[in-house]
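Recall the central idea of this unit: under ordinary conditions, the amino acid sequence of a chain determines the structure it adopts. In this exercise we apply that idea directly, starting from the sequence alone.
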Amino acid sequence: MKSMNLNKAVCMRLVLALAAVALAVTMAPGRTVAAGQAEGVLEISLADYVAAYVANSDEVATARENAENAETQWQRAVAEKQARLTIEELENTAYTRKLALQETVNNVVIKAVQAYVDLDQAMRDLAAKRVALNVAEERLRVTRLRYEAGLTTRDSVLQQENSYISATDALVKAEINIKQVKESFCEAAGLEPADTIALTTDVSSLYTGEVEFARDEVLEAARKASSSYFSAAAAADIARRKHEALKDPMIATKNERDQAAKADSDAQARLSDAEKSLVSSVDNALATLESLMRSLEMQTISAELAAADLEVARIRFDHGEMLQYELDSQVSSAEQAQFRAVQAKIDLFLQVLRIVALTGGDAMGLITR
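Accordingly, the structure predicted from this sequence is:
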């Protein structure tokens, strides 16, 4: 267990640092979480929102309480001079709970970032739906005029009326969605409800493009950071030593020896399962990262093509070869293509956060750097 104890010291410092983030927010009197806030208006950065979200999290509070209780039980066992293996089991439990606290804080940080991103997406979607409705309305108006002039058919008018109704319905749904997302956004972080929310951080800018993870290094770091893997490894080690100790018929009954052998076998099986699960998590995380990098490349190319198409459309419009609503539609398409490229960068940043969390790093540090 020497190597395991060495890893404990490193990880405990990370745990304390992560816990301090939430604790500082909780204890700071009169802390302002927003860059600027008036009645019904909230202006907030990603770092401030994440800090408030973590401080308001029941998951973090429960994990911290569990870690503190396990630490207390271990220290009490030491003070009472209980059996050596009992003390070691309690020490392992305390350390497992500390790792679990670290995992919980990182996971809650990721949830907070996702909530921030979801609101940004909902805002963009609402804006896009408004543009789409304006385009549909103008297209319908022009189609009706062309029909009255005998230049198109009644079916064309009906088609545009359907498109207009569909665009109207989409806008209504987007307005309902943005209201719900805003409510969830504020409630999750313990903030006062706000009708107007300004997000001051461009999350896509946090993805620097400098992403490189070596599988073996990620896997090794994940082993050290995983509470479930450490718990299984520690339990397997103790079960093995108990089995060895009870093999002597002079100090243990046959029933005790059989129970110890079964406990050892079960513990080794659980460790094997934990290893397989960990390897699968690492491989899936890295595969997802590679897929998202390819997606970003494709979306970037698509955005460039859409921008080129828009330039051609502007030229055609200037030469009288295109109607205003057609140009507006092309502008909207280019903006949506650009947004998809931005969203691809955000998805990549979130995946980097997940890998950092998986390896026991400080997810909050990537946000505040």
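The first helix runs from residue 2 to 27.
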